[in-house]
Design a protein that fits this description.
This protein is of the alpha+beta class. The chain contains 9 helices and 19 strands.
């Protein structure tokens, strides 16, 4: 894997090769990474792995025609051949009136600020093994746990570099550390599985492995002896580890490319009241050590903190250059990019501002409802907002979490669900998309 300086030089070389081959404009993205993973099961080492990979992608334009190619071969002479093939491909492609690089005057001009994304930690397989064992041991020590799918620990580092023919060039590195445990509770024929995990940019921000293990074990044991329930319309409480998916659907609906295709349920609702007026949802790409932090987007535009939802109203589309041109708007730093294909769009570190009531207070008035800890399937229609997913969790009876349930279905429409959503006060920044416990009234639950 190349370091940041080498990665940027290679991306710039590929851009120059594209221009020399006849392209009018080009950008190149280098992505490289290395990781070490250790997994254990039943107190013994099960697997130890080391993976490394790097790839470079080129996007170029000949007039309004474009082509994208990628390669894991980074030798200069091979990159020149790659550029020549890409130019030939572009000349045979149809014209796209919206294609092109970001406007030069909008590109990031300053050096990238330090967001503290790389702790420089080297992989220590022995330390990873001990952490994985500690997580699994703590999980297996929980009463009711009878089997294990293992504990795991990993450390990795990646480098990203972007260069454009309009003068932008930057590179940065990110580290990643993770811990996990997955165990079984109960006896054969009536076993339940659950897990816990945590990922952080810095090893120092991970919890103690035993905390991860205990959480996995307690979650599995709590699922034992599920009961049947009677369906109907009722309040549904989403645990934070599944509630974030609801806001993920919102972010998908706020996609500029989806709006340009008229393929989003928010098409006529941008700027209208969607949530309660007390709800704000923020995007902070500059959060130090954030899992999705970035100073520039995938096209070289500077990023900035923003309100995606302000007093219940979505504030605007997530735009890259192409979708902004299609919609007659300005790009806003939300382009995402892989080594292959055209840029997409996305948010960074997103969170919903917490409410004022505790999760217990949100449940206090519920005579009959469900508390969800698991969602299954992909039953969401991005155009209509219709929502139907398999789920598991617990009954709420007379304001208290009681017996486990599984293999139920929860359904509604995202527009109605957002309007009926109430956040609790327990926001915790452990993911790239963070929400507190969420209550949604009036959903349909089927057993």
């Amino acid at each position: 894997m190349l370091d940041e300086k080498q990665a940027l030089e290679r991306a710039e070389l590929l851009v120059s090769a594209a221009i020399d081959a006849g392209a009018d404009a080009a950008d190149a993205l280098y992505s490289g990474g290395a990781s070490t993973e250790i997994s254990v099961r039943l107190g013994k080492l099960e697997d130890a792995g080391r993976s490394e990979g790097e790839e470079i992608g080129l996007r170029l334009f000949v007039g309004k025609r474009s082509a994208s190619v990628s390669s894991s071969a980074l030798a200069p002479e091979l990159l020149r051949d790659l550029a020549e093939r890409a130019v030939a491909m572009a000349k045979a492609a149809p014209e796209d009136p919206y294609a092109g690089l970001a406007p030069e005057e909008r590109l990031m001009k300053e050096p990238l600020p330090d967001l503290d994304l790389d702790d420089g930690a080297a992989a220590d397989p022995d330390a990873l093994r001990e952490a994985a064992l500690a997580a699994e041991d703590a999980a297996r020590a929980v009463s009711g746990v009878t089997g294990s799918e293992g504990g795991g620990a990993s450390v990795g580092r990646s480098v990203v570099a972007l260069a454009t023919s309009t003068g932008f060039g930057a590179a940065y590195a990110r580290s990643s550390h993770s811990l996990s445990a997955s165990v079984l509770a109960g006896e054969s024929g009536a076993r339940e599985r659950d897990y816990a995990y945590r990922t952080a940019r810095h090893a120092a921000d991970l919890p103690d492995p035993a905390e991860i293990g205990r959480k996995a074990g307690e979650r599995a044991a709590a699922r034992l002896n599920p009961v049947d329930m009677t369906g109907g319309a009722m309040p549904v409480i989403f645990d934070p580890r599944v509630g974030g998916s609801l806001i993920g659907h919102l972010l998908g609906a706020m996609s500029g490319p989806a709006a340009a295709r008229r393929a989003t349920f928010l098409l006529d609702l941008m700027g209208e009241r969607l949530f309660d007026s007390g709800i704000d949802i923020l995007d902070d790409p500059h959060r130090p050590r954030g899992l999705a932090s970035k100073s520039v987007d995938g096209e070289g535009l500077p990023t900035a903190p923003s309100k995606l939802v302000d007093a219940g109203r979505p504030t605007g589309w997530l735009l890259n250059v192409a979708s902004a041109r299609q919609l007659g708007l300005e790009p806003n730093g939300h382009a995402t990019r892989g080594v292959g294909g055209s840029p997409g769009v996305g948010a960074s570190n997103v969170h919903m501002v917490p409410g004022k009531d505790s999760p217990a207070a949100l449940m206090a008035g519920i005579e009959r409802g469900v508390y969800l800890t698991e969602l299954i399937g992909q039953g969401v229609n991005a155009i209509t907002g219709d929502y139907s997913r398999g789920a598991g969790g617990f009954l709420i009876e007379n304001g208290e979490i009681t017996r486990p349930v599984r293999e139920i279905t929860v359904a509604g429409n995202l527009k109605d669900m957002f309007a009926a959503m109430t956040p609790a006060d327990d926001l915790d920044f452990t993911r790239s998309l963070n929400v507190p416990t969420l209550r949604v009234d009036g959903m349909t639950v089927a057993a």
